[in-house]
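Re: your question from the hallway

Yes, I did run it. Sequences:
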Amino acid sequence: MAVKEAAAEHGAGLDSGTHEGTYSGGLWSWITTVDHKRIGIMYAVFAFFFFLVGGLEALLIRLQLGSPENTLIDPDLYNQLFTMHGTTMVFLAIMPLSAAFFNFIVPLQLGARDVAFPRLNAFSLWVFVFGAFFLNASFLFGGAPDAGWFGYANLTSTQYSPGVRIDFWVLGLQVLGVSSIAAALNFIVTIINLRAPGMSLMRMPLFTWMTFVTSFLLILAFPAITVGLVLLMFDRTFGTSFFNPAAGGDVLLWQHLFWIFGHPEVYILLLPSLGIVSEVIPTFSRKPLFGYPFVVYSGILIAFLGFGVWAHHMFSVGLGPIANTVFSATTMLIAIPTGVKIFNWIATMWGGSLRLKTPLYFAIGFIAMFIIGGLSGVMHSSAAADLQQTDSYFVVAHIHYVLFGGVIFALFSGIYYWFPKITGKLLSEGIGKVHFWVMLLAFNLTFFPQHYLGLHGMPRRTFTYQEGLGFEAMNLMSTAGSLLLGFSILIFLWNVLVSLRKGAAAGRDPWGGATLEWAIDSPPPHYNFRVEPTVHSRDPLWAAGGLDVDVNDPAAPEPHMPSPSLWPFILSAGLVVAAAGAVAKSLVVVLAGGAIVVVSIFGWAFQPLER
Amino acid sequence: MTEHAATAAEQHHSYTGLPNRKLLMWAFIGSECMLFGSLLITYLVYRGRSVVGPYPEELLNIPFITVTTFILLMSSLMMVLALAAVQRNDMRQGKLWILMTALLGLAFLAGQAYEFTHFVHEGLGLTTNLFGASFFLLTGTHGAHVAVGVVWLLTLFVMAMRGRLSSADAETVEITGLYWHFVDVVWIVLFTVIYLLV
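Structure:
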């Protein structure tokens, strides 16, 4: 039904809008693929798998906290669970889910046939996949990392964390950093150089813009944590004293290095979502984005200010009134560009012809939940208020309102929006709306009470609480909500399964979108655009007469695409072998991994891109 | 279209006209600035905070490092000559200057190896104090970058010897040069901060 409406509205021919064969081929073709679309899909599948893993860890935490003095999970396992929940959701779920969209959507929005470096793209994927499994393998070897997702020194020293748990964390995050930096470099070059003719920077779709900004954040923020991790690795492996106060070392250096990375990281998680919402709202309001330049510049400003606020994570360490005041002020400043975006989205919907499809539901849900998270964020930008809130459940509520109520809702909006383009099938609107309402309700049931728990003094990262402190009812509420939240994810998975099997065919443009990805078949052919489009405006498909060429012209010659390559896969494996050797303190294994890396770099460099 | 369809890369013109690989190297250098910046900050934070000796002023040999610094800077000159030769397809000179760049890089590394060994003899190991840890990590990371550059240059040299490098590859040599000059510039900063501001 929905399809027919849409097709009738926008004249997208259902008969010509599907393309078979983009995803055909066996396992080998997926391992050696350099096609940005297949890489995007693998990013999505692996990221969603780890989203489920992180979710299960969260459910175990909530079950433990469901009643006072519960003994379901012992303190040691509890520490591992909250550490791995945070680490998994940040590095193995949200970042790679965003990367899945970068990969699939950005080249299409640019009017490009692939990214600038297709093999480097495959490398980023496989490093992420191997690194993710490596990090989780720690569960099988004496337990997972247990020092919190920000691994504060000197809790991570060999004195307080003997064994290999922290080594898995240190090496795993370094490996994952390589993946992120490689991907970001690739997307920077892709967006600068592979834009369709006529697509000036200020004509780029917002999602591509935010990918561009995020990529700069990645290449500039990750080196700081890499250095922090290297210092920690040297302390643990070679016995240096970077974070050993007895030898003059400074534990606060870790916090500075971590948060100089860690706060931009927050925007690395968030900005792609702001981009998704900025695509979905105009499409379903049938109106160009209100104040496009403001939305672009505020995104850049958020990223820029994001580098100047890191010490608001450190108000309680006693940096002194001047530092605290400066970082309070810069933190409050960030609310301005964020507010600008929110008003622009609302103004886009205002007077628009709203079509309340599932992607728009999630986008509006995002705005509402993100405002709540943003407001509690402004609350603890004040150093004085933060001292009351830090390390309490108030902060847990805040981060989940921005990262789940914000980012995850926006990512689901993107999934419902682009699923038809990626698979050629529409997701069910009915199940989608049930998914939305259950998730919205469950999310608020889970996390809203945590504001109060925090203000009443319940500390984070503590495996239980005593009876009679007044925490029981709200914890029970939160636990019930989390189970319902897990159920809402099952509804989504059911929707995917049902829709893949018997969903309505999407056609080229089920939503009447304005950007180039809607001009080609769903799923797109492996070369994307048979004929290169030329762009004359911000909303090329909404221009009178549409594109001036037929991008699907079957008479045009079929473009040659880069050949598959196994080297990115082998090179990634070599990196993880070396990391495993470092954890096992085996020089032989490290050298073997290093040898694989060197051989595959040369193999890669001398293998022609097209054979 | 002619007999052979144009490749994807050929058809898709670069929007800015800049080669993709060169842009990649510039972006990578941006990232590397943050890496060395973070290491340098670590070194500066720990300056004067070692609780046991040996201390920097007892060990750092400025005249010796001035010589190896001069050698590394000269290697950048060789790199410029190499690129100019390759661009005019003078591969005899191109080979010579590429090899000279790599050899001067190796000479710098030899100087660093000597310096490290000397420090260890004087009692400064990686774990002796904060100066040792932060000094060896910072200069060692830089040395590793020089070593990668040397391997890269020697690879180009072997390709040139086999006749597989010509003016058509000038862009490759230019990108190698970008990396090499960057590593040199980093050393100028490290030399100033570690040795001259001791």
